[in-house]
Design goal:
This protein has about 80 residues and is an alpha+beta fold. It has 2 domains: about 30 residues, no CATH class; about 50 residues, no CATH class. It has 1 helix and 5 strands, in the order ββββαβ. The protein has a 3-stranded antiparallel sheet with strand order 4-3-5, covered by helices on one side. The chain has a two-stranded antiparallel ribbon with strand order 1-2. The longest helix has 11 residues.
Length: about 80
């Protein structure tokens, strides 16, 4: 496979990037994405006991979409670290 993508190897226990070399076969690797600073707490849960989702960097919904998710589904968006 010659697709010129950079594949990264993740550590399965803490999801940190351990190897960023270019590989020729992506059969045992996943394409690495950087996480955004936002976390979505789904369906009215609390930060300690809920389903949480962290989107990819630069793929966070705009403020209007986040507000509509809160009003209709109870999804609360929290900016991490500030």
């Amino acid at each position: 496979m010659n697709d010129n993508k950079t594949y990264v190897r993740f550590n399965s226990t803490d999801t940190t990037i351990t190897d960023t070399r270019k590989f020729t076969s992506p059969s045992h690797l996943i394409l690495g994405y950087e996480k955004s600073d936002w976390t979505c707490i789904l369906f009215g849960g609390s930060p300690t006991s809920s389903i949480q989702w962290v989107p990819h960097k630069n793929e966070v919904p705009c403020w209007f979409w986040r507000k509509m998710q809160y009003l209709f589904f109870g999804n609360k968006w929290v900016k991490n670290g500030g």
